[in-house]
Amino acid sequence: MSPELDVAVIGAGVAGLTTAHELRRAGLEVRVFEEQPYVGGRMHSFRHDGYVLDEGAEQISERGYRATWELLTRLSVPDHHVPRIGKAIGVWRAGRAHAGVADPVALLSGAALSPRARLDLVRFLAWTALHHRGFDGDHPERTPAGPATVARFARRYHRDVHDYLLQPVAGCFFGWDTARSAAAPLISLMNDVGPVSGWRTYHDGMDLLARRLADGLDVALGTPVHEVVEDGDGVRLHGPGGTVTARAAVLCVPAPIAARLHGKAPEDEQAFLTACTFTPTLKVSCLLDRPLAPVSHKPLYALLTPDAVDDVLSGIIVDHAKHPGRAPAGKGLLTLMADPRRIPELRGTPDAETADRLVRAATRYIPGLDTARRRHFVHAFRHGLPEVTPEALHHRPRFMARPPRPVEYAGDWVMLRPASEAAVRSGALAASRVLSRLRPSPASRTPRPAVAAPRSDACETA
């Protein structure tokens, strides 16, 4: 029997949609299977009564997102649809917000660091500048930081560098436990994205890229896939609606789900799939009757609440400061990020109780929040962000050197970089690997993908 499709893509997040977009441009027949009734995955945005709620990712950057910007240009997304945020990030210490995180001004202002720690921040920045060529986002396992965890790496500096910089950044934006997650990817990402002054958002929700990619693609929403089986040179997909056959499949889902779907993955894939653990994320969107924000001498769009001062929250995003279109005129929108240490217990409680607990904690930083809240929504992802452990770094080279096969993978976890840029780059890489097996038909006038794929050994030999 002839396969029904050239390629089946499982997952309509940014990685899956990028993969499908590239393969469709190359002339292949592609269908995307998505369990949810919407596209975007962890970059989905929810709209309610004039508010735009980002359920997952919060921003991109002018730097370090080359493949994303190339894709936006190809999709004809104008620059003003990806505006600068233009506000600072603060960290809470000693009863107030200290602005300047991820900004050169921290060397002068301190950004919650003590004078002694500020000197060590200079040492840290000098060390990263000296070794910046060694931090390659495509090869996070090959860095001067080695396999050290964030906590272990930070021991060479004043304690404040960990407690009021590295831990709050890792905990709020990635949901990481610094005793488990590796320092190399964090340092590489901080180097790549540059100061917060160059950080941007999508003007109509963080799912803008996903929605634009989905236009023109064959996307089957509300269509789960329960198993993917290699069948000779092709694959079979099993789901509630029956079986679909294809010449290839790309699993664009978190690694634990990919491992479950492809239960008979080859041995050189299984070790990395097993090592790629994820941290859960949970946050509460608070729709306010007025715009509130933490008190600070500089306007903030994010306030980090370190483990050293808070065990309920990891941070607060001021969405109406991130972009005014996130809330109706005269209203406010805040996102309360749960501390990863509390998520397991919070996921088992009713949404109203979860929201009340986070609001009570946040009122410490934003007085009046309890009375300004008019409605809330709880967003939780069991597989929020790749954890990037030393074990995953160890197994990645063999995974990346595997030969192209009927079942491929894409997602930020493939790059061990918890960012949407990694999803785009992994999608381009997966497409190039598929095309090395399934050459486009002669009738296709479109060359292989133009989005920048990572410089990996697998890609170079494809």
Report what the structure shows.
- The protein is of the alpha/beta class and 462 residues long.
- 34% of the residues lie in helices and 22% in strands.
- It is built from 18 helices and 18 strands.
- It has helices at residues 14-25, 66-74, 106-109, 115-130, 150-154, 159-174, 183-193, 208-214, 255-261, 267-275, 319-322, 343-346, 351-362, 369-372, 390-400, 412-415, 420-437, 457-461; strands at 5-10, 30-33, 45-48, 51-54, 60-61, 88-93, 96-99, 199-200, 219-220, 227-231, 234-239, 242-251, 278-288, 300-304, 313-318, 332-338, 373-386, 407-409.
- The strands form 4 sheets. Strands 1, 2, 9, 10, 11, 12 and 18 form a 7-stranded mixed β-sheet that branches. The protein has a 7-stranded mixed β-sheet with strand order 7-6-14-15-16-13-17, sandwiched between helices. Strands 3-4 form a two-stranded antiparallel sheet.
- It is globular.
- The model is unreliable at 441-450 and 455-462 (pLDDT under 50).
